[in-house]
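We examine the record.

___
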Amino acid sequence: MFIATLLANPDRANLDRVTVEALRDAWGGGAARWLSPGVAAEFAVDSVPGNRWETWEGLQGIGVDLVVQPAEGRRKTMLLADMDSTMIGQECIDELADMAGVGPRVAEITKRAMNGELDFEGALIERVGLLKGLPESVITQVLAERITFTPGGRELIATMKAKGGYAALVSGGFTAFTTAVAAHLGFDEHRANTLLAEGGRLTGDVARPILGREAKIAALREISARLGIGHDKVMAVGDGANDLGMLGLAGAGVALHAKPLVAAQCDIRINHGDLTALLYIQGYSADDFA
């Protein structure tokens, strides 16, 4: 048995009954269950429809996401999340670079690295080098003035933890940011790179070893082993090329507003919904949110 879930952006709430029931009828599905009016609905199907991706593509045009997954085991015990452009709306290094006057140059490198066009470690070292001499105090300023949280993050973590779940933030960014983001959103732990500083200014370097794609995979393995759960009990979410390893290893790998190269390699693609979509696809209704 499989579950087909249709999702809209909660701000638009434009998922209508006609769309849901038309697809249910076309696929010979069971009764539709509304998880949130105008935002999320689901129904059961016996198998994955052959026109799944053609249907997905058509729904993109009206701002609706479609996820089809096995009904068994879809509710997960652990959340492993990327930070930049996933749990928050920005790339922290780009914001620091903007403050340092090298914003466009660093943003272009970031874009290419997240698209998988550049080696992540080399790209990070190059970008951090351009921050040399920036006052450490700028980090606090960026956190206060420039960082916004992706809607639904606190609900996602609180709801999963209320059901006995565990949440880990693992980022190719910096601990100076993950510390604050993890505390605000309720993560149980966080891992990231450490910016080096001397005399109150950034040195233009980052501590080794650098946390990138392989370290995110390692985090999934290490934390799930510590919790005594299989990888199938993990939901991972990210948007960039360095997230692909953990997205592929997790029981549910969610490409959230992801780069095209990343989305193309994931069966769960959320382009319109916010982080509450990760609850809906586990079968939670809005009334279940903590």
